C-alpha cells in the first residue's frame, strides 16, 4: 500500500520589515521565501526561512565571507500571520550558527535592551522575545547533556527540510 502524500506547501506572500514583498511557501510551521537586495553594486538573491513556532528567521547569508559560507544567520522576528500574507519584522537579537564543532554566537542583546528602554518595543513584547530566543536556542542548538559535537540537536531545523527542496516561488 502506498502512503498518502502529506499536505503540499501553500503559496504565501512575505512582507519583510514593511518594505520587501516576496513570494514564498508555507509548510506546517515554517515558511520559505526568496528575495533580492543590492550589495556593493550588485543584486544578490537570498533564501530565508521563518520558523513560526519560535518566531525566528534563518538563512545562509550570501554576504558572509568565503570562510563562513554555509553558516546560518538567525534573527528574532515579530511575525504577523494573516494567512496568505505574513509580515516578518526584525527584532534585533541575532544568532550566528556555524559548524557543530563551533560555538554559536548571540548578538545584539544590547540593541534589544535599547529598543525596550526607548519604547520601540514594550516590556511584554521584550519579555516574549527573550523567552522565544531561549526556546529557539534550547530546541535547536543547546546540548544540555549531550557530549556529541559533530551535530546540532536540530539545526538546520527539520521543519525546513521539505521547503529547502522547493524552487524559488514566483508571484502569480
UniProtKB/TrEMBL annotation:
InterPro entries (alphabetical): DUF402, FomD-like_sf
Domain DUF402: from-to ranges: 46-125
Protein name: DUF402 domain-containing protein
Species whose genome carries this gene: Actinoplanes couchii
